[in-house]
Amino acid sequence: xxxxxxxxxxxxxxxxxxxxxxxxxxxxxxxxxxxxxxxxxxxxxxxxxxxxxxxxxxxxxxxxxxxxxxxxxxxxxxxxxxxxxxxxxxxxxxxxxxxxxxxxxxxxxxxxxxxxxxxxxxx
Length: 123
Prior knowledge:
Elements: E1 2-7, E2 12-16, E3 20-25, E4 38-41, H1 42-45, E5 55-59, E6 67-71, E7 74-79, E8 99-105, E9 108-113, H2 115-120
């Protein structure tokens, strides 16, 4: 599956391309730009301090207003085989509820985001 990968200090987060409608540039705060989107910070979901969010990933949700995931710079997009996705232990499931699992390789860890769970939790 194809993922768009964003980097934080100690790890990376992969957002599945199949769950996105499009990528938008976040030149201004979404409300200042006249958009009335429902924005979610990827940094906040990951328990990280807020960073610049130059990209907005519009998630496929069927909702109006659109659900936009505010992300740090997208480092790369890559194919990651589902067979290599490692599930989290049950004891960590509550803390990592918005992630499908992790990909591990020599360069580190990529957490695979689960956009469907995020969208289901929006009131």
